[in-house]
Amino acid sequence: MRSLEPDAGELRRLIGACADFVVEQIDSLPRQPSWDVEGAAEVAASFREPAPEDGTDISKILRRLGPAVSKSFTTSGPGYLAFIPGGGLPSAAMADFIACAVNRFVGVAAAAPALARLEATAVDWLASLMGYPVTAGGILTSGGSISNLTALVTARVARLPDDFLAGTIYMSEQTHLSVVKAARIAGFSDRNIRWVPVDGRLRLRPDRLEAMMAEDRDRGLRPFLVIANMGTTNTGAIDPLPEVIEIARRHQAWLHADAAYGGFFRMVPGGERLLPGIEACDSITLDPHKGLFLPYGTGCLLVRDPATLKQAHRGEATYLQDVKEGELAPDFHALSPELSRDFRGLRVWLPIVLHGLAAFRDQLREKLDLARRAWEELCEEPLLEMLDEPQLSIVAFTCVSRKGGDGNALAAELLRRVNARRRVFLSSTTIGGRFVVRICVLSFRTHADRVGEAVEAIRQEARALAG
Ligand SMILES: *Cc1c(COP(=O)(O)O)cnc(C)c1O
Q1: Which of 356, 372, 399 is the last residue of a domain?
Q2: Single pTM value for the model
């Protein structure tokens, strides 16, 4: 019979080959193009194949993986300023390697009490960074979308009867699509969703929120959930929480902060002032794979009262009768839809312990400064119209149309030209019918030199277009 277990020597050789591959990948990141999907279709097609009956040597496999990795958006590189960057800390990859290799089960604490405690502690750290009391709790998820879904279901169970279709949900027009998807998955329809208008800085308007909630209540509906954006994906807009809290409380609605992008900025010195009131929300979505630079697949949902999370995921199973919940750590399966899952706690815990929180604070502080400097410099450009001063680390702008020209087409062409240099990679969005170019600074690998290059490229291309 063929063995699936390498002996110690062979295991070292395999790990060594993978380590060489990883070091080469990470070491070359600053020199890699910011994106390169030319010929990606052929590489992709080469992976359409039947499963092999016989094995392949690791070196041959890694040689095939190389081009599959490089023909892509270089999301972990310093030039990636598109969408919401993250990073992919090497220390988190090490943690995952260890977690997968030891393959312990953390879904029930009794199966690995210390590892479950380690993960629960990592969640506690994140809760404390948001200003939550020690009684708060939460769960690591695969990302912000699942965190928002879990929050929505938790709010529904906490605030509505089993027959919940009179419930109404309030969110600004700038809210992330995942919240709408979550509402649908949770059994609501578009009839249950209220889009609250935004102000000139794209923040939810509390006066409109109050009016909409009061109107729905008068019609016999049950306003039960308000979503507050702590940094929208489009522009990083921060909804006015102190006023929203008052309104949500008055209507006994659950207040959920979607801080997937913005949350971790609270940890920079003075960061409480950036996101005032977040600690008063009933739940908070965080994305450590954004603001903590961890690899994709790392989200978090925090709740002020962990009993609500438990209530939403309650149930008994006879096949789990041997593993009773203890005092040391929660049973994660009792707080989420998942039973078996990866040991994500190590991916959060190890980098924090290895680097210390101060390193993360420094990095996040730098990103805010870089965005502000880029904004100041681009404000000088006559062809550009800046949307707003950055509320966090996103700079958004449009092009001023000249001589009756099409500003949207101009902005799209500007974006194409800047990206064509392949040193930085920017993305766009549409706001109020206008084509908006965005710079989002968030990777731990992005520093002043690369943001400076982005600004210079935008300037040069804008001037060339202005002709
Ligand atoms: C990224 C993001 C999400 C979705 O998170 P994923 O991790 O991509 O699932 C939700 N809300 C906001 C504000 C985001 O920026």
Answers
A1: 356
A2: 0.98
